[in-house]
Amino acid sequence: MKLDSKIPEGPLKDKWTNYKNNINLVNPANKRNIDVIVVGTGLAGGSASATLAELGYNVKAFCYQDSPRRAHSIAAQGGINAAKNYQGDGDSTYRLFYDTIKGGDYRSREANVYRLAEVSANIIDQCVAQGVPFARDYGGLLDNRSFGGVLVSRTFYAKGQTGQQLLLGAYSAMNRQIAKGKIEMFNRHEMLDVVVVDGKARGIIARNLVTGEIERHSAHAVVVASGGYGNVFFLSTNAMGSNVTASWKVHKRGALFANPCYTQIHPTCVPVHGTQQSKLTLMSESLRNDGRIWVPKNLEDAKAVREGKLKAVNIKEEDRDYYLERRYPSFGNLVPRDVASRAAKERCDAGFGVVNNDTNEGVFLDFASAIIRYGKEQAHLKGMHNPTDAEIQGLGKEVIASKYGNLFDMYKQITAENPYEMPMKIYPAVHYTMGGVWVDYNLMTTVPGLYAIGEANFSDHGANRLGASALMQGLADGYFVLPYTIGDYLADDIRTGKISTELPEFAEAEASVKSQIDTLINNKGIHSVDYFHKQLGLIMWNKVGMSRTAEGLKEAIEEIATLREAFWKEVRVPGAADELNQELEKAGRVADFLELGELFARDALEREESCGGHFREEHRTEDGEAKRDDENFTFVSAWEYTGKPSEAILHKEELIFENVELKTRSYK
Amino acid sequence: MATEKGMNITLKVWRQKNGQSKGALETYELKDVSPDNSFLEMMDILNDQIIMKDGSPVAFDHDCREGICGSCSMYINGEPHGPGRLVTTCQLHMREFKDGETIYVEPFRAKAFPIIKDLIVDRSAFDRIQHAGGYISVNTSGNTQDANSIPIDKKDADRAFDAATCIGCGACVAACKNASASLFMSAKISQYALLPQGQVEAKNRVLAMVKQAEDEGFGPCSNTGACEIECPKGISLENIARMNREYLSASITSK
Fold this sequence. Notes:
The complex is a heterodimer.
Chain A: H1 15-22, H2 28-31, E1 35-39, H3 43-55, E2 58-62, E3 80-81, H4 93-103, H5 110-129, E4 155-156, H6 162-180, E5 183-186, E6 189-197, E7 200-208, E8 214-218, E9 221-224, H7 245-252, E10 257-258, E11 263-269, E12 292-296, H8 299-306, E13 320-321, H9 323-327, H10 337-349, E14 363-366, H11 368-381, H12 389-415, E15 424-433, E16 436-437, E17 450-452, H13 470-490, H14 504-522, H15 529-543, H16 550-570, H17 582-606, H18 630-633, E18 635-640, E19 649-654
Parallel strand pairs in A: 1-2, 1-9, 2-5, 9-17
Antiparallel strand pairs in A: 3-4, 6-7, 7-8, 10-16, 10-18, 11-15, 12-13, 12-14, 14-15, 18-19
Chain B: E1 7-15, E2 24-33, H1 39-52, E3 74-76, E4 79-80, E5 102-107, E6 115-117, E7 120-121, H2 124-133, H3 154-164, H4 171-175, H5 182-193, H6 196-199, H7 202-216, H8 226-230, H9 238-253
Parallel strand pairs in B: 1-5
Antiparallel strand pairs in B: 1-2, 3-4, 3-5, 6-7
């Protein structure tokens, strides 16, 4: 199989414009005869559904939640990037492009990333027109904040709830089309297979999660917008229901799966508290604008903190190690996520962790100096002469509350500690997956008519995603990219007519879905689904997590294969197939994670270099930084399914850099 | 993150096979639950126990488990999202309960939220209210005017944001003796009424959304304020007042 990324000819900055000028269009009357299925209603799927319906296509949208508004994009906190240069600090489309390429450690496609940067500014205009209440300054104009890995302020935000506001914007655009009958919405439905007819994606098999009924749905194109697969680690910042099933099923039907090992471990999450924990909670990266990260300089202080004998506030300034500021003076606390996460792990592995859990994993995120800085600024603004320390503290806390109030409340709720008085304790956790279904410039997979957008695809973030870029990519794909590229494909389908669900391919896919469900229900094993999911998570976190070795990866591959066998022998799924059955839903998802996990580890083993979120201990510089191997690994790993994860075939898409020079990524 | 001694609790959980069958409270005992567990993690432990005894686990809606998706919808000890203010069920932690306590867990109850199974209710009526007018009619062409071309007073922008933080969980309906959806509706109506972009369609929006809520079987607002107290996002009653003003003005002046 030859991978063709279909990048348009011409200079980088003209590619997207030229492309749009030369594609085939579908006339409005013909769009009414064309059906498109969209699986997932987060930022990518929601925005795509709304836009395709506005254009005139008949959209069928699916989500497993009870409403499209609940997709996990809703939980994105910090913000969305756009090269608006409202701050006049030197931002531009090129700079956003460059930062994203560099942030991704030179493992993404130039043309895709440039297009993303190019449409980013439109996203903000669009969202404001939709009534998204972004933060504003006193002059009534939009406010910005900074995120990791960049030297400009280009992040637009709505307190710590930016994802919520953007998703509700996309949801409102969907509602307008649902009201018109242009989107047919299938809530509480889960896609369990894709149907390929004559080599083209022509429909899906979905389960109605309320009745258990298995349904056939046909269309002229299928769009997978089902998010990332971070839950392969069991504990992650993803929602409980986030899963790889849609992506994995299309992989099994011929779509290549790219760079599965590129996973983002987010540096600022609430640390693990115990074995019954079901998920991890993110504390937005925006907190690193004002919070300083540190651990005690002395091992005995760290131990005393863990034992509850010493409080952080009582550790003197000179006894604190602000390790990010020490190691990376130019970016300081705003280094990219992969760098910040590894640095936290390095300190905790060395014994300086401050949290009393099994692994002592945790570092401080401290707002004390920001509170004083803001307090003084406010006192000055209010014309207060000689304000007392208490007044400064009070004013400073008000500013912090207005910026991050909901995050501070959430932290307090989870930990029962007050972050206005004591530094937060944080630790890295699995957050986002840069890998995903392989797509070309059109966002089409290797199966014609099958598209993947948003986190579900692999395309724009390389080996590491910069903060506030996921929202940007999801909306760019759904609002501004896919609506053009899918039209070019569908222009050939204006005479096809309705696709029949009576075709043998639908029957075959339905039978395979039913057979898996029957096996799970009738298995009557000895362990619950979660038992296996937790085991898988431990293998992944310990051997395929923040730092990987060839030896550990080989062990992981074997252990996952063994666990998968045990799952199919010993899993217990109570209840029946023809009812609402949440254990059955979970079982299907974990079955797919157990296959993905193995491919994930294989991918990590094959990639004999360190880049972005993928860190191999064998490949690092003397001072412990990631060491890329551009000569041998400047490619996308795209895996072809052949029946077993262990027998997947690796295809390579060479990455060609014509506009940026490959450099060692330095944030020092 | 203090690790304290485990708690023993008794649970009285509403069990109902489906929308047609009759439900009842069932009693379960749980031992050694960590006070650091969230309420839903406690429910996971319960379900694990039930599954291992060959029973049918308790069905409940949940997803993000960080208080923002609005999926979780339990009625705990007679309150939507349980004791504590400004939290959803998923953010509620067991440290809020006492060792030895008996905890009642029921679904949200309202005519417009029929029970699907156990603790899961059908809140699609909320979606239909949004279909009736919860949007600004602008195409996603990307050819809108520059985002900074209309300055918006920070106070209005902040108030619009506060209203827009509604997570659509339905606690307001569950808390209301009339099962009114006023707080939910007013949040969306206020968000748009406060922004210049939303004002163009404001009249049609408020009339259409209020009518839809009536058609769905939600009751009228009688200003008891229970919704505001139970709302996990602190959506203010001011929004209902604003909605009422918008409604009155639209009823009188709409063409």
